[in-house]
Write a sequence for this structure.
């Protein structure tokens, strides 16, 4: 800056270079490795150029609200600055365009540019430059996010989002903050667009959600926030400077206002088109009006407050969840929310309850009409996950959700819940709901037992699932003595057989007509308490020995036997059971599931053999005769 | 006669233990008081000052003051008499006490000294205890002196005694005398005494009271006795006479009847046995026996066979498996050494016994052998090395049969696979294999004859050359033959006729009993007579035998093999030594026989390894079944699988531990492979058709694997509740069914197969596999009218994916369409085959639904057999699905045959439920 004349020649060169570099971008996009390499190179060159320009101070963004007046007395330097700025904008446009086409190098250049072009525009002009607070340019981040959200291809979009999150948002606290803010802004825009024009915005919504999912939502601790190391653009030492404190505090207040009023955001979005930032102007004004009560505190910029951070996290999610997102992402979001977002002490977690209950209805909407049939497994998972979220809210936030047990009961009729990946979550949820409360009415317990067993018998539930169900039912029966009639019903019936012959629900042979109504989804109407658990008898015939054994003992244990540890049963899979059986058979393995300790000494088991020598592979009368044509 | 024990007390006596004597003494000499018995008032108990009405302990009662001199004992006795006695009297107890102690009462009391008493007592005691007295002592002898009672038969004989009763009661054992002598005898033997006297007294005789009655009475008795005996004799005589009379009567009647029989006999007609016999023989000759006769014939024959069966001496013991294996291995070793010797032209100590058998039948073959031998000689002149070269080298088209995992492949010199193998190429190698029957030998020789002799003359044979009864060679079943391979068999022309189009047709009955009608002339050719008649000298025969043996040895497979360690090695072995599937099985069989664990324990490791190789071989063959079907009679892949199953079974029997370990490891590999495929399948798009060649990625196991699991069910008992191999296999199947997504028809077939396996495994022990049943229910639902609706009722995620797949959405429609186009589908249920060709076939959906329905029926009948009530409920979902697809709609109604099948399955289901209710 000091030697302008000396730099003018270099400026000319730079101008030329700039012109050449920017010009090339006009060529149409075509697909080719060469082209992409060239482009990447060009963007990188440009980035370096602008970086040096910004570092030199030749390009700065101090064009403020009082721009117009200044323009009168512009000198060459400012003119050059203005020119550079227009060139800069062209470059940014090109970058965004390229990002929209899914080019990673463009994104990387963009990040680089964001990193160097800190915005200082809302500083008081009279302050010396070195005292000004530097921070990430909101608009640039917004444009990046906007561009990211417009990537069409699914895979590419997620790759890009991953990159943006990994390289930009997650390492830097401020980067994260502003990305979330931008996501919120974008989703609000998109939502409006959808409402007004009925456009299909699923892709955009998906991309935004993907990005938000990837952004690490765990708020860093205060110390982390305060340290300069975690900032993309380290706010100059002044941030910690007491003299400068007032400004930062003002800024803080500013931002809070900004966040609270959604109008403000809209304003923001409207100002994207023109470069002049009215927002900052406004902030300046407001900053003057606000009192300086927080002066004595340590001064922070908005993103350095944990409360702000949490708030923006919530806002971003809420605004994104309003959008129609694809079911896959929906599920991911459902899974993400309870563990990562709701635990972050966000200001009002109950605002997510609507989302969860709506999601549950998506999963089970068919069931009101046709109770016999569930919907596809994907929807079951959606319901399951949303129930989990609801459970979290109920337990931690005192959410009232009277339909909860009915919902859970409905969900159980789909045996697919025992096959899907999230079955462990489902099982934990079941355990938590049923085992942790002593106060559940007997009819609910009975209905749950009945339906669980029924699903095991008729629904093709894997042995692991059956094991869990049996353990759970056993525990429930022991805890709720009122339900013991489910197991002991036949005894009662035999005694009353003589006089019961006339009854309709009593068969001649002492068989009981099952009055249990599996069709209804209301535990109160299922008449489970009048039924019996014949399913246990059927499960005794299960091919897996452990299931059979467990079914045999289920309901007949005395009070002294300790209840099963359900967590143990959760972990069973086909694979683990398979390994268990193989270990049981061969080698120095342990015992079975029940007796792990007793049989450790056994070296290897003798293998029993069939004694009928086979004459052919397929024999007459086996399960294949009649439908498999074998010569 | 009341018996009283002497221990009872009489009321009058004083209580036992009270010294009566003293009391009497006191009374007698009242003057001399016992000073201790008088309670004196002037004792320590006396009070200083007498206070009126004050009771002083120890002082006597007021009335006692009247007689202060009476002793305390007397007072208490008096009180006792006044109070206690009165009380006892009031209670109406009236027992008296008799003291029967020795020396305590009566005169003895005073006479006996203490010592006497003791002595007497001890004598009594001793005598009571002594055995002698105890033996005869009746229990209550001491009670009433001389009153002895007599008993008879455990009953007391007294007034109530009635000897009559007694007689009647006890006459069972004296039947012979009919009870006649009883009373008399008793009287005679036991008469007299009190009893008789009493009797006489009671029943007085006519001559007054018995005065010296004893003798007279006795005389009476004797007289009456005599009369009785006479009577008895008379009675017996009469009986005898009557018996005689009856007998005479009977004889007379018989005679009469015999006479009348002649008249009757003339009316009767008898069949002519001889004639019948002749008739039977005739009928037998004509082969027109009735069914019953035929059975009888068979029976007779069998009986005769048993009659003439060689009587075998009992051997020492049955051989152990080890010994059997040893013998088998030894036999093979011998054969192998012989073979090697023959190959080297070494015919010492070789009787050629195995060659001579077919000598007479195949003379022509020997001619050929001779030719070939000449060739050999020529080549031997060239160089000794040539001798060892293979026969194939001399053939023009040098195509080599290779047996690989793909099956039989024909490879030419350059190693290219020749697609259409000519019959001649592998004829040489196959014709002399010892396994092949003589027929095939003949067949191959005849075909080689054809080329040797130039068969063109026969081809252009005149029709007139052939007439009825001529011996010919017939090309058997030309249209059924495999790849142009010809089967010529010797036979006789039984009929000559002219076909519709003017051609002459022959009916040929083959020598082996087969018959073929309507053969065209080109397939029938006469046998040259001169060849048949050709005579050869003994020496020639021997030479030829040797030559043949040599050639045979060279071309046939060795008898002893080393154990191959890898699958590739096994395949190489099979490729070099075997050309057909049967050969391959034989090779494996021989490997097993020569290296059995039973022979040598050290073979264990080798065989364990070999077992795994065999399993992999099994899978390879199974996969080949999928890719190219059974492969004709030559390959006979199913036959190979059968043979492999047998060998796997045998080897498992030899060493169960090894088999279990190998199977377990193999299952582990399957499990891992399945897990990997499941992971991969998530990456593959839902259509599953990402390859250009239409190769579907499938998460389901290959056909070979599934077939191997079928074999598993033969080798291990599937009924065990917990089995180290079967249970993991079941789990593996369950996982496959529940998790592997169904994306193509192959997947569905594999799924059905796996379900079938689960059902098969569990059927023996009457268990139930939920996954398999759910799968069946799901598959049925795929055929429903509305795919989306159907998907909602499917419980397995694997099939949920399928329901969304367009391939399956159209299944019902294609079933309907197929039924409309093909008549076959309307009449019979289609079956599924494992062949790959099947998958693209039009009838695939139809076959699928038919198979599913069949499998459902099988499952129902399996579960149905165990009647516990709850099992039939297990089929609930299947029931629902069946009802679901049976829905009728105007547009897309199922073909009637399938509807019928559905209905049938439903009936079976509900019948099962009903039956279980009945029980």
């Amino acid at each position: 800056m000091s030697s302008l004349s000396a730099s003018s020649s270099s400026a000319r060169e730079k101008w030329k270079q700039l012109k050449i570099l920017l010009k090339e971008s006009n060529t149409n996009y075509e697909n080719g490795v060469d082209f992409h390499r060239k482009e990447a190179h060009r963007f990188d060159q440009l980035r370096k150029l602008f970086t040096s320009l910004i570092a030199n101070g030749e390009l700065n963004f101090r064009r403020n609200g009082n721009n117009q007046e200044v323009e009168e007395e512009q000198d060459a330097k400012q003119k050059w600055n203005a020119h550079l700025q227009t060139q800069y904008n062209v470059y940014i446009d090109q970058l965004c365009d390229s990002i929209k086409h899914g080019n990673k190098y463009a994104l990387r250049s963009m990040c680089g540019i964001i990193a160097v072009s800190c915005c200082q525009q809302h500083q008081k002009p009279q302050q010396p430059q070195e005292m000004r607070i530097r921070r990430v340019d909101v608009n640039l981040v917004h444009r990046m996010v906007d561009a990211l959200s417009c990537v069409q291809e699914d895979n590419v979009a997620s790759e890009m989002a991953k990159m943006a999150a990994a390289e930009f948002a997650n390492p830097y606290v401020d980067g994260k903050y502003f990305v979330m803010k931008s996501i919120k802004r974008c989703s609000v825009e998109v939502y409006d667009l959808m409402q007004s024009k009925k456009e299909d915005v699923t892709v955009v919504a998906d991309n935004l959600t993907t990005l938000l999912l990837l952004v690490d939502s765990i708020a860093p601790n205060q110390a982390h926030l305060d340290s300069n190391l975690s900032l993309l653009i380290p706010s100059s030492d002044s941030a910690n400077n007491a003299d400068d404190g007032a400004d930062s505090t003002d800024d803080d207040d500013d931002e809070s206002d900004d966040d609270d009023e959604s109008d403000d955001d809209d304003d923001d979005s409207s100002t994207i088109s023109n470069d002049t930032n009215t927002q900052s102007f406004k902030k300046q004004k407001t900053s003057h009006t606000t009192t300086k009560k927080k002066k004595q505190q340590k001064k922070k910029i908005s993103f350095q407050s944990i409360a702000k951070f949490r708030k923006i996290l919530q806002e971003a999610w809420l605004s994104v969840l309003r959008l129609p997102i694809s079911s896959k992402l929906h599920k991911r979001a459902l899974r993400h929310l309870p563990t990562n977002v709701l635990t972050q002490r966000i200001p009002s977690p109950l605002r997510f309850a609507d989302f969860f209950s709506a999601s549950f209805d998506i999963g089970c909407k068919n069931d009101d009409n046709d109770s016999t049939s569930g919907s596809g497994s994907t929807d079951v998972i959606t319901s399951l996950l949303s129930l989990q979220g609801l459970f979290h809210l109920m337990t931690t936030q005192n959410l009232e959700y009277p339909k909860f047990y009915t919902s859970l009961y409905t969900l159980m009729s789909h045996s697919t819940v025992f096959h899907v990946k999230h079955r462990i979550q489902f099982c934990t949820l079941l355990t938590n709901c049923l085992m942790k409360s002593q106060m559940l009415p007997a009819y609910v317990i009975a209905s749950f037992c009945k339906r669980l067993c029924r699903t095991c018998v008729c629904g093709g539930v894997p042995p692991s699932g059956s094991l869990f169900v049996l353990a759970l039912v056993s525990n429930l029966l022991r805890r709720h003595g009122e339900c013991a009639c489910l197991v002991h019903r036949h005894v009662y019936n035999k005694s009353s057989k003589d006089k019961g012959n006339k009854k309709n629900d009593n068969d001649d042979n002492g068989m009981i007509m099952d009055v249990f109504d599996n069709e209804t989804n209301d535990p109160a109407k299922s008449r489970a308490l009048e039924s019996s658990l014949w399913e246990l008898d059927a499960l005794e015939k299960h091919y897996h020995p452990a299931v059979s054994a467990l079914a045999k003992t289920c309901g007949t244990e005395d009070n002294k036997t300790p209840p099963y540890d359900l967590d143990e049963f959760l972990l069973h899979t086909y694979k683990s059971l398979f390994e268990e059986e193989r270990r049981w058979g061969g080698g120095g393995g342990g015992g079975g599931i029940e007796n792990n300790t007793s049989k450790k000494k056994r070296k290897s088991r003798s293998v029993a053999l069939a004694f009928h020598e086979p004459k052919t592979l397929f024999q007459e009368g086996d399960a294949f005769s009649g439908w498999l044509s074998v010569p | 006669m009341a018996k009283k024990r002497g221990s009872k007390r009489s009321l009058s006596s004083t209580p036992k233990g009270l010294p009566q004597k003293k009391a009497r003494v006191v009374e007698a000499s009242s003057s001399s008081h016992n000073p201790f018995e008088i309670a004196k008032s002037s004792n320590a108990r006396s009070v200083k000052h007498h206070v009126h009405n004050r009771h002083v302990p120890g002082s006597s009662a007021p009335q006692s003051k009247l007689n202060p001199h009476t002793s305390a004992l007397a007072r208490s006795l008096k009180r006792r008499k006044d109070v206690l006695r009165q009380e006892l009297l009031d209670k109406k107890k009236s027992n008296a006490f008799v003291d029967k102690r020795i020396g305590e009462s009566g005169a003895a009391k005073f006479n006996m000294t203490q010592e006497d008493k003791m002595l007497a007592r001890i004598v009594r005691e001793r005598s009571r205890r002594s055995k002698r007295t105890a033996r005869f002592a009746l229990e209550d002898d001491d009670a009433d002196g001389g009153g002895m009672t007599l008993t008879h038969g455990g009953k007391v004989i007294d007034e109530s005694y009635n000897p009559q009763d007694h007689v009647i009661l006890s006459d069972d054992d004296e039947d012979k005398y009919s009870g006649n002598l009883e009373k008399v005898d008793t009287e005679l033997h036991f008469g007299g005494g009190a009893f008789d006297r009493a009797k006489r007294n009671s029943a007085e005789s006519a001559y007054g009271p018995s005065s010296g009655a004893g003798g007279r009475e006795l005389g009476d008795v004797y007289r009456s006795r005599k009369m009785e005996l006479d009577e008895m004799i008379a009675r017996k005589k009469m009986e005898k006479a009557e018996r005689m009379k009856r007998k005479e009567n009977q004889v007379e009647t018989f005679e009469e009847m015999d006479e009348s029989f002649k008249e009757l006999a003339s009316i009767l007609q008898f069949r002519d046995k001889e004639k019948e016999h002749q008739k039977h023989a005739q009928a037998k000759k004509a082969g027109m026996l009735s069914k019953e006769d035929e059975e009888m014939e068979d029976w007779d024959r069998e009986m005769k066979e048993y009659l003439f069966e060689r009587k075998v001496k009992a051997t020492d013991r049955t051989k152990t498996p080890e010994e059997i294996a040893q013998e088998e291995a030894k036999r093979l070793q011998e054969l192998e050494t012989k073979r090697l010797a023959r190959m080297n032209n070494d015919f010492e100590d070789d009787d050629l016994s195995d060659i001579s058998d077919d000598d007479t039948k195949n003379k022509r073959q020997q001619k050929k052998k001779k030719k070939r031998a000449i060739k050999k000689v020529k080549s031997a002149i060239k160089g000794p090395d040539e001798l060892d070269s293979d026969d194939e080298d001399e053939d023009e088209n040098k195509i080599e049969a290779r047996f690989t995992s793909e099956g039989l492949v024909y490879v030419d010199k350059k190693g290219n696979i020749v697609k259409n193998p000519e019959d001649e190429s592998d004829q040489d190698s196959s014709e002399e294999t010892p396994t092949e029957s003589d027929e095939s030998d003949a067949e191959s020789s005849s075909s080689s004859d054809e080329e040797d002799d130039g068969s063109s003359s026969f081809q252009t044979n005149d029709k007139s050359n052939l007439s009825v009864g001529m011996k010919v060679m017939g090309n058997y079943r030309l249209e059924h033959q495999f790849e142009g391979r010809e089967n010529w068999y010797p036979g006789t022309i039984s009929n000559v006729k002219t076909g519709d189009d003017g051609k002459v047709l022959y009916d040929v009955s083959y020598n082996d009993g087969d018959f073929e009608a309507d053969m065209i002339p080109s397939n029938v050719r006469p046998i040259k007579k001169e060849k048949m008649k050709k005579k050869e000298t003994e020496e020639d025969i021997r030479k030829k035998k040797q030559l043949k043996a040599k050639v045979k040895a060279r071309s046939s497979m060795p008898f002893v093999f080393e154990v191959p360690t890898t699958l590739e090695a096994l395949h190489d072995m099979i490729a070099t030594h075997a050309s057909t599937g049967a050969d391959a099985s034989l090779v494996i069989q021989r490997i097993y026989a020569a290296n059995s664990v039973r022979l040598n324990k050290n073979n264990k490791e080798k065989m364990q390894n070999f077992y795994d190789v065999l399993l992999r071989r099994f899978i390879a063959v199974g996969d080949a079944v999928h890719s190219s079907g059974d492969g004709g009679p030559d390959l006979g892949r199913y036959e190979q699988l059968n043979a492999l199953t047998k060998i796997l079974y045998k080897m498992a029997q030899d060493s169960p531990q090894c088999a279990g370990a190998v199977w377990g490891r193999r299952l582990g590999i399957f499990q891992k492979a399945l897990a990997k495929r499941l992971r991969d399948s998530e990456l593959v798009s839902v259509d599953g058709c990402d390859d250009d060649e239409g190769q579907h990625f499938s998460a389901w196991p290959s056909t070979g694997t599934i077939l191997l699991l079928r074999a598993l069910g033969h080798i291990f008992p599937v009924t065990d509740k917990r089995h180290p191999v079967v249970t993991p296999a079941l789990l593996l199947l369950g996982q496959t069914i529940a998790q592997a997504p169904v994306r193509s028809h192959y997947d569905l077939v594999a799924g059905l197969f796996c379900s079938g396996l689960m059902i098969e495994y569990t059927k023996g022990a009457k268990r139930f596999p939920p996954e398999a049943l759910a799968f069946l229910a799901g598959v049925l639902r795929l055929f429903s009218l509305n795919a989306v609706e159907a998907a909602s009722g499917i419980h397995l995620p694997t099939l949920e994916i399928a329901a969304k797949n367009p391939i399956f959405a159209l299944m019902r429609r294609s079933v309907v369409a197929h039924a409309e186009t093909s008549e076959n589908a309307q009449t019979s249920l289609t079956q599924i085959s494992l062949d790959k060709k099947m998958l693209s076939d039009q009838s695939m959906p139809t076959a699928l639904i038919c198979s599913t329905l069949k499998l459902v029926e099988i499952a129902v009948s399996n579960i149905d057999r165990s009647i516990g009530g709850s099992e039939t409920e297990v089929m609930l979902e299947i029931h629902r699905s069946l009802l679901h697809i049976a829905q009728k709609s105007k547009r897309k109604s199922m073909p009637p045959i399938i509807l019928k099948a559905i209905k049938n399955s439903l009936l079976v289901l509900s019948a099962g439920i009903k039956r279980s209710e009945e029980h």
Chain B is about 55% helix and 5% strand. Chain B touches chain A through 97 residues (CB under 8 Å).
